[in-house]
Amino acid sequence: MSSGLKIAVMGSGGIGGYFGGRLADAANVTGSDVSFIARGAHLAAMQKDGLRINSPLGDAHIPSVKATDDPATIGPVDIVMFGVKLYDVEEAAELCKPLIGPDTAVISFLNGVDSEARLQAILGAEAAVGGVARIPSNIAAPGVIAHMGPFAELDFGELDGRDSPRLNAFHAACEGAGIRSDLVDNIETAIWLKLAILSPFASVCCMTRLPGRIMVEDPHVHEVAVAAMREVIAVARAKGIDLPDDALESRQDMMNGFVNAKPSMLHDLEAGKRIELNGLQGAVVRMGVELDVPTPVHQVVYAALKPYLNGPPKD
Protein backbone atom coordinates (compact mmCIF):
# COMPACT_ATOMS: atom_id res chain seq x y z
CA MET A 1 0.00 0.00 0.00
CA SER A 2 1.18 3.52 -0.74
CA SER A 3 1.53 6.09 2.00
CA GLY A 4 -1.84 7.41 0.86
CA LEU A 5 -2.36 10.54 -1.18
CA LYS A 6 -5.00 13.14 -0.47
CA ILE A 7 -6.65 13.81 -3.83
CA ALA A 8 -9.29 16.35 -4.82
CA VAL A 9 -11.20 16.03 -8.10
CA MET A 10 -12.13 19.49 -9.38
CA GLY A 11 -14.84 18.80 -11.91
CA SER A 12 -16.40 15.35 -11.57
CA GLY A 13 -17.65 14.79 -15.11
CA GLY A 14 -16.54 12.27 -17.71
CA ILE A 15 -12.85 12.58 -16.88
CA GLY A 16 -12.81 13.47 -13.19
CA GLY A 17 -15.73 11.19 -12.35
CA TYR A 18 -14.21 8.20 -14.11
CA PHE A 19 -10.60 8.43 -12.97
CA GLY A 20 -11.45 9.83 -9.54
CA GLY A 21 -14.00 7.06 -9.18
CA ARG A 22 -11.42 4.40 -9.98
CA LEU A 23 -9.07 5.89 -7.38
CA ALA A 24 -11.85 6.07 -4.79
CA ASP A 25 -12.88 2.49 -5.56
CA ALA A 26 -9.31 1.32 -4.90
CA ALA A 27 -8.80 3.35 -1.73
CA ASN A 28 -8.44 0.19 0.37
CA VAL A 29 -5.54 -0.83 -1.90
CA THR A 30 -3.74 2.49 -2.42
CA GLY A 31 -4.67 4.34 0.74
CA SER A 32 -5.80 7.33 -1.34
CA ASP A 33 -8.29 9.76 0.20
CA VAL A 34 -10.41 11.08 -2.68
CA SER A 35 -12.81 14.03 -2.54
CA PHE A 36 -15.03 15.16 -5.41
CA ILE A 37 -16.01 18.75 -6.15
CA ALA A 38 -19.23 18.92 -8.14
CA ARG A 39 -22.45 20.87 -8.33
CA GLY A 40 -26.16 20.60 -9.03
CA ALA A 41 -27.97 17.33 -9.54
CA HIS A 42 -24.72 15.40 -10.08
CA LEU A 43 -23.46 16.48 -6.65
CA ALA A 44 -26.78 15.67 -4.99
CA ALA A 45 -26.83 12.18 -6.53
CA MET A 46 -23.24 11.49 -5.47
CA GLN A 47 -23.98 12.59 -1.90
CA LYS A 48 -27.09 10.40 -1.75
CA ASP A 49 -26.18 7.25 -3.72
CA GLY A 50 -22.44 7.48 -4.39
CA LEU A 51 -20.82 7.26 -7.81
CA ARG A 52 -21.46 4.64 -10.46
CA ILE A 53 -19.20 3.87 -13.45
CA ASN A 54 -20.47 1.91 -16.44
CA SER A 55 -17.48 0.81 -18.50
CA PRO A 56 -16.28 -1.89 -20.92
CA LEU A 57 -13.23 -2.08 -18.64
CA GLY A 58 -15.45 -3.08 -15.72
CA ASP A 59 -18.37 -1.45 -13.93
CA ALA A 60 -18.01 0.01 -10.47
CA HIS A 61 -20.23 1.46 -7.78
CA ILE A 62 -18.71 3.42 -4.92
CA PRO A 63 -21.72 3.68 -2.60
CA SER A 64 -20.22 6.35 -0.36
CA VAL A 65 -18.02 9.14 -1.71
CA LYS A 66 -16.81 12.44 -0.31
CA ALA A 67 -18.48 15.08 -2.48
CA THR A 68 -18.93 18.80 -1.96
CA ASP A 69 -19.31 22.10 -3.82
CA ASP A 70 -17.01 23.88 -1.35
CA PRO A 71 -13.27 23.08 -1.66
CA ALA A 72 -12.60 24.94 1.61
CA THR A 73 -14.18 22.02 3.47
CA ILE A 74 -11.51 19.72 2.05
CA GLY A 75 -8.40 21.75 2.79
CA PRO A 76 -4.90 21.29 1.31
CA VAL A 77 -4.33 18.13 -0.72
CA ASP A 78 -1.42 16.43 -2.46
CA ILE A 79 -3.04 16.22 -5.91
CA VAL A 80 -5.81 18.17 -7.61
CA MET A 81 -7.20 16.40 -10.67
CA PHE A 82 -8.43 19.40 -12.64
CA GLY A 83 -11.14 18.45 -15.13
CA VAL A 84 -13.49 21.35 -15.84
CA LYS A 85 -14.52 22.90 -19.15
CA LEU A 86 -12.07 25.25 -20.84
CA TYR A 87 -14.39 28.22 -20.38
CA ASP A 88 -14.47 27.60 -16.60
CA VAL A 89 -10.70 27.46 -15.97
CA GLU A 90 -10.28 30.79 -14.19
CA GLU A 91 -13.34 30.41 -11.96
CA ALA A 92 -12.40 26.85 -11.01
CA ALA A 93 -8.76 27.78 -10.40
CA GLU A 94 -9.85 30.44 -7.92
CA LEU A 95 -11.98 27.83 -6.15
CA CYS A 96 -8.90 25.58 -5.92
CA LYS A 97 -6.97 27.99 -3.71
CA PRO A 98 -8.02 26.33 -0.39
CA LEU A 99 -6.72 23.02 -1.79
CA ILE A 100 -3.19 24.30 -2.37
CA GLY A 101 -0.41 23.40 0.03
CA PRO A 102 3.36 23.92 -0.35
CA ASP A 103 3.80 20.94 -2.69
CA THR A 104 0.32 20.46 -4.21
CA ALA A 105 0.22 19.43 -7.86
CA VAL A 106 -2.76 20.68 -9.88
CA ILE A 107 -2.83 18.38 -12.90
CA SER A 108 -4.76 19.78 -15.82
CA PHE A 109 -6.61 17.04 -17.68
CA LEU A 110 -8.43 19.54 -19.87
CA ASN A 111 -8.84 19.73 -23.61
CA GLY A 112 -6.91 22.35 -25.54
CA VAL A 113 -3.31 23.48 -25.11
CA ASP A 114 -3.34 26.56 -22.83
CA SER A 115 -4.93 25.52 -19.53
CA GLU A 116 -1.58 24.99 -17.78
CA ALA A 117 -0.51 28.59 -18.42
CA ARG A 118 -3.91 29.82 -17.24
CA LEU A 119 -3.56 27.77 -14.03
CA GLN A 120 -0.06 29.11 -13.43
CA ALA A 121 -1.36 32.68 -13.64
CA ILE A 122 -3.73 32.06 -10.72
CA LEU A 123 -2.13 29.27 -8.64
CA GLY A 124 1.57 29.84 -9.33
CA ALA A 125 4.16 28.19 -11.55
CA GLU A 126 4.98 25.42 -9.06
CA ALA A 127 1.41 24.19 -8.63
CA ALA A 128 0.45 23.68 -12.28
CA VAL A 129 1.22 20.34 -13.93
CA GLY A 130 0.50 19.20 -17.47
CA GLY A 131 -1.77 16.27 -18.13
CA VAL A 132 -3.67 14.39 -20.82
CA ALA A 133 -6.73 12.19 -20.42
CA ARG A 134 -7.66 9.86 -23.28
CA ILE A 135 -11.12 8.51 -22.62
CA PRO A 136 -14.54 8.73 -24.31
CA SER A 137 -16.81 9.33 -21.32
CA ASN A 138 -19.53 11.61 -20.01
CA ILE A 139 -22.13 12.01 -17.28
CA ALA A 140 -24.93 9.68 -18.42
CA ALA A 141 -27.20 10.67 -15.52
CA PRO A 142 -26.59 12.38 -12.17
CA GLY A 143 -24.11 10.24 -10.26
CA VAL A 144 -23.45 7.97 -13.26
CA ILE A 145 -20.39 8.05 -15.54
CA ALA A 146 -20.64 6.28 -18.91
CA HIS A 147 -17.37 5.12 -20.47
CA MET A 148 -17.82 4.19 -24.12
CA GLY A 149 -14.54 2.89 -25.48
CA PRO A 150 -11.78 0.33 -25.02
CA PHE A 151 -9.27 2.79 -23.58
CA ALA A 152 -8.90 5.01 -20.50
CA GLU A 153 -5.44 6.49 -20.10
CA LEU A 154 -3.67 9.33 -18.31
CA ASP A 155 -0.38 11.04 -19.10
CA PHE A 156 1.12 13.65 -16.80
CA GLY A 157 4.43 15.38 -16.20
CA GLU A 158 6.04 18.47 -14.77
CA LEU A 159 6.00 21.33 -17.26
CA ASP A 160 9.79 21.67 -17.06
CA GLY A 161 10.33 17.91 -17.43
CA ARG A 162 12.02 17.47 -14.05
CA ASP A 163 11.84 14.30 -12.00
CA SER A 164 8.88 14.62 -9.68
CA PRO A 165 8.39 12.77 -6.38
CA ARG A 166 4.81 14.08 -6.14
CA LEU A 167 3.92 12.74 -9.58
CA ASN A 168 5.74 9.46 -8.95
CA ALA A 169 3.46 9.02 -5.95
CA PHE A 170 0.37 9.81 -8.02
CA HIS A 171 1.55 7.41 -10.73
CA ALA A 172 1.84 4.67 -8.11
CA ALA A 173 -1.69 5.43 -6.88
CA CYS A 174 -3.03 5.21 -10.45
CA GLU A 175 -1.30 1.88 -11.01
CA GLY A 176 -2.71 0.58 -7.74
CA ALA A 177 -6.19 1.56 -8.95
CA GLY A 178 -5.74 -0.21 -12.27
CA ILE A 179 -5.55 3.05 -14.23
CA ARG A 180 -3.30 2.94 -17.25
CA SER A 181 -1.02 5.95 -16.80
CA ASP A 182 2.33 7.29 -17.89
CA LEU A 183 4.64 9.80 -16.23
CA VAL A 184 6.21 11.55 -19.23
CA ASP A 185 9.26 13.77 -19.69
CA ASN A 186 7.72 16.03 -22.34
CA ILE A 187 4.09 16.57 -21.47
CA GLU A 188 3.73 19.36 -24.03
CA THR A 189 4.19 16.84 -26.84
CA ALA A 190 1.46 14.62 -25.33
CA ILE A 191 -0.91 17.59 -25.00
CA TRP A 192 -0.53 18.49 -28.68
CA LEU A 193 -0.87 14.88 -29.80
CA LYS A 194 -4.20 14.76 -27.99
CA LEU A 195 -5.37 17.96 -29.70
CA ALA A 196 -4.44 16.42 -33.05
CA ILE A 197 -7.05 13.68 -32.55
CA LEU A 198 -9.58 15.49 -30.35
CA SER A 199 -10.16 18.57 -32.49
CA PRO A 200 -10.75 16.57 -35.71
CA PHE A 201 -12.98 14.09 -33.82
CA ALA A 202 -15.06 16.87 -32.27
CA SER A 203 -15.15 18.81 -35.54
CA VAL A 204 -16.57 16.11 -37.81
CA CYS A 205 -18.94 14.72 -35.17
CA CYS A 206 -20.39 18.14 -34.38
CA MET A 207 -20.69 19.07 -38.06
CA THR A 208 -22.51 15.82 -38.88
CA ARG A 209 -24.25 15.51 -35.47
CA LEU A 210 -23.16 11.86 -35.44
CA PRO A 211 -20.84 9.75 -33.25
CA GLY A 212 -17.31 8.67 -34.14
CA ARG A 213 -18.34 5.85 -36.47
CA ILE A 214 -18.99 8.43 -39.20
CA MET A 215 -15.34 9.48 -39.44
CA VAL A 216 -14.22 5.84 -39.70
CA GLU A 217 -16.82 4.49 -42.12
CA ASP A 218 -17.58 7.43 -44.43
CA PRO A 219 -14.61 8.11 -46.73
CA HIS A 220 -15.49 11.78 -47.27
CA VAL A 221 -15.81 12.48 -43.55
CA HIS A 222 -12.65 10.47 -42.93
CA GLU A 223 -10.80 12.67 -45.42
CA VAL A 224 -11.95 15.83 -43.63
CA ALA A 225 -10.89 14.44 -40.25
CA VAL A 226 -7.42 13.58 -41.55
CA ALA A 227 -7.08 17.03 -43.12
CA ALA A 228 -7.93 18.55 -39.73
CA MET A 229 -5.26 16.37 -38.12
CA ARG A 230 -2.71 17.66 -40.63
CA GLU A 231 -3.62 21.23 -39.70
CA VAL A 232 -3.09 20.72 -35.96
CA ILE A 233 0.21 18.95 -36.58
CA ALA A 234 1.38 21.74 -38.89
CA VAL A 235 0.51 24.40 -36.30
CA ALA A 236 2.28 22.43 -33.57
CA ARG A 237 5.44 22.06 -35.62
CA ALA A 238 5.37 25.75 -36.54
CA LYS A 239 5.28 26.48 -32.79
CA GLY A 240 8.34 24.31 -32.29
CA ILE A 241 6.55 21.45 -30.56
CA ASP A 242 8.57 18.23 -30.74
CA LEU A 243 6.12 15.81 -32.35
CA PRO A 244 7.15 12.31 -33.46
CA ASP A 245 7.55 11.60 -37.17
CA ASP A 246 4.54 9.25 -37.10
CA ALA A 247 2.20 11.77 -35.44
CA LEU A 248 -0.32 11.67 -38.28
CA GLU A 249 -0.26 7.89 -38.70
CA SER A 250 -0.66 7.27 -34.97
CA ARG A 251 -3.62 9.69 -34.80
CA GLN A 252 -5.26 7.91 -37.72
CA ASP A 253 -4.76 4.58 -35.98
CA MET A 254 -6.53 5.96 -32.90
CA MET A 255 -9.65 6.73 -34.92
CA ASN A 256 -10.82 3.12 -34.74
CA GLY A 257 -11.11 3.40 -30.97
CA PHE A 258 -13.69 6.17 -31.34
CA VAL A 259 -16.25 4.22 -33.38
CA ASN A 260 -18.84 4.04 -30.59
CA ALA A 261 -17.90 7.31 -28.91
CA LYS A 262 -19.24 10.84 -29.00
CA PRO A 263 -16.98 13.79 -28.22
CA SER A 264 -17.97 15.83 -25.20
CA MET A 265 -18.52 18.79 -27.50
CA LEU A 266 -21.28 16.91 -29.32
CA HIS A 267 -22.88 15.92 -26.00
CA ASP A 268 -22.88 19.59 -25.00
CA LEU A 269 -24.13 20.74 -28.40
CA GLU A 270 -27.05 18.29 -28.31
CA ALA A 271 -27.87 19.31 -24.74
CA GLY A 272 -27.97 23.00 -25.67
CA LYS A 273 -24.98 23.82 -23.47
CA ARG A 274 -21.95 26.01 -24.08
CA ILE A 275 -19.26 24.35 -26.20
CA GLU A 276 -15.46 24.49 -26.00
CA LEU A 277 -15.18 25.88 -29.53
CA ASN A 278 -12.89 28.79 -28.68
CA GLY A 279 -10.40 26.57 -26.87
CA LEU A 280 -10.25 23.88 -29.56
CA GLN A 281 -11.06 24.76 -33.17
CA GLY A 282 -10.89 28.50 -32.45
CA ALA A 283 -7.44 28.12 -30.90
CA VAL A 284 -6.16 26.24 -33.96
CA VAL A 285 -7.48 29.00 -36.23
CA ARG A 286 -5.93 31.79 -34.10
CA MET A 287 -2.54 30.07 -33.89
CA GLY A 288 -2.64 29.32 -37.60
CA VAL A 289 -3.10 33.02 -38.34
CA GLU A 290 -0.28 33.97 -35.96
CA LEU A 291 2.09 31.41 -37.47
CA ASP A 292 0.98 31.82 -41.10
CA VAL A 293 -0.19 28.18 -41.24
CA PRO A 294 -3.37 27.58 -43.29
CA THR A 295 -6.21 25.92 -41.33
CA PRO A 296 -9.16 25.85 -43.77
CA VAL A 297 -10.96 22.88 -42.19
CA HIS A 298 -10.83 24.44 -38.74
CA GLN A 299 -11.95 27.80 -40.14
CA VAL A 300 -15.07 26.22 -41.67
CA VAL A 301 -15.87 24.25 -38.51
CA TYR A 302 -15.36 27.32 -36.32
CA ALA A 303 -17.61 29.45 -38.50
CA ALA A 304 -20.33 26.78 -38.68
CA LEU A 305 -20.42 26.12 -34.93
CA LYS A 306 -19.83 29.67 -33.68
CA PRO A 307 -23.59 30.45 -33.49
CA TYR A 308 -23.82 27.61 -30.91
CA LEU A 309 -20.88 28.82 -28.80
CA ASN A 310 -23.06 29.78 -25.81
CA GLY A 311 -25.94 27.41 -26.48
CA PRO A 312 -28.60 27.35 -29.21
CA PRO A 313 -28.74 30.56 -31.28
CA LYS A 314 -31.60 32.86 -30.43
CA ASP A 315 -34.32 33.32 -33.04
List keywords for this structure.
single chain; globular; 2 domains; N-(1-d-carboxylethyl)-l-norvaline Dehydrogenase, domain 2; four-stranded mixed sheet; 315 residues; alpha/beta; Rossmann fold; 17% strand; eight-stranded mixed sheet; 13 helices
Descriptive overview:
This protein has 315 residues and is an alpha/beta fold. The protein has two domains: 6-185, NAD(P)-binding Rossmann-like Domain (Rossmann fold); 189-308, N-(1-d-carboxylethyl)-l-norvaline Dehydrogenase, domain 2, CATH 1.10.1040.10. Helices cover 43% and strands 17% of the residues. The chain contains 13 helices and twelve strands. The strands form two sheets. The protein has an eight-stranded mixed beta sheet with strand order 5-2-1-6-7-8-11-12. α9 packs across α12. The longest helix has 22 residues, at 187-208. It starts with 5 loop residues before the first strand and ends in a 10-residue tail after the last helix. 47% of the residues are buried.
Walk me through the topology.
Layout: E1 6-10, H1 14-25, H2 27-30, E2 33-37, H3 40-49, E3 51-54, E4 60-62, E5 66-68, E6 79-82, H4 89-95, E7 105-108, H5 115-123, E8 128-134, E9 137-141, E10 144-147, E11 153-157, H6 165-176, E12 180-183, H7 187-208, H8 213-217, H9 219-238, H10 247-254, H11 264-270, H12 281-291, H13 296-305
Parallel strand pairs: 1-2, 1-6, 2-5, 3-10, 6-7, 7-8, 11-12
Antiparallel strand pairs: 3-4, 8-11, 9-10
Shape descriptor reads: globular
Largest sheet: 8 strands, mixed
Structural category is alpha/beta
Straight-line distance between termini: 58 Å
**Helix fraction bin:** 40-55%
The mean pLDDT is 95
How would you name the oligomeric state of the polypeptide chains in this document?
Answer: single chain
CATH architecture of the largest domain: 3-Layer(aba) Sandwich
Total of DSSP H or I helical runs spanning 4+ residues: 13
- CATH topology (level 3) name of the largest domain: Rossmann fold
Annotation, overall tally of beta strands:
12
Estimated share of beta-strand residues: 15-25%
Our count of domains comes out at 2
Low-confidence stretches: none
